[in-house]
C-alpha cells in the first residue's frame, strides 16, 4: 500500500494568498465603485478591437467640458455632468440628471499612451490601446 503525503500547510497557505488577493481586489473595486449619493451611474459597453479596448459610456445631454476620465491600473474612472434640458415645473422625470460617475474594471491591461476619447451623439467612446501594441 502506497503512502500519500499531503502537505496541508502549503495548500492552505496558497489558498490563503489567493483568497487574500481576490478579496483585496474585490474590496478595492467595490469601495471605488460606490458612486456619490447624489450621482447616477450611466450604462457602459466594452468592446475589444484588434489594437484597443473601447469603452462606450451612454450619457446623452452630458456636458463635454465636464468629463473627467482617468486610468488607474485595471480601472477606468469616468465622471461627468448632465444638465436638465429645460427649467420649469416638472410633471414627469424619468431621465437621470446631475453628476454621474462610473468605475469600470477593465478585462485586460491597457495603456494611456495613445488613448483617445470622443463624445458624439450622446456616447462617450474611450479608446484604450492594448499594452504591447
From TrEMBL:
PROSITE patterns in UniProt: SHSP (PS01031)
Annotated SHSP domain residues: 35-133
Coiled-coil boundaries: none
Pfam families reported in the protein's UniProt record: HSP20
InterPro entries from the UniProt entry: A-crystallin/Hsp20_dom, HSP20-like_chaperone
Annotated transmembrane regions: none
Similarity comment text for this entry: Belongs to the small heat shock protein (HSP20) family.
Name recorded for this polypeptide: Hsp20/alpha crystallin family protein
Classification of source organism: Bacteria, Pseudomonadati, Thermodesulfobacteriota, Thermodesulfobacteria, Thermodesulfobacteriales
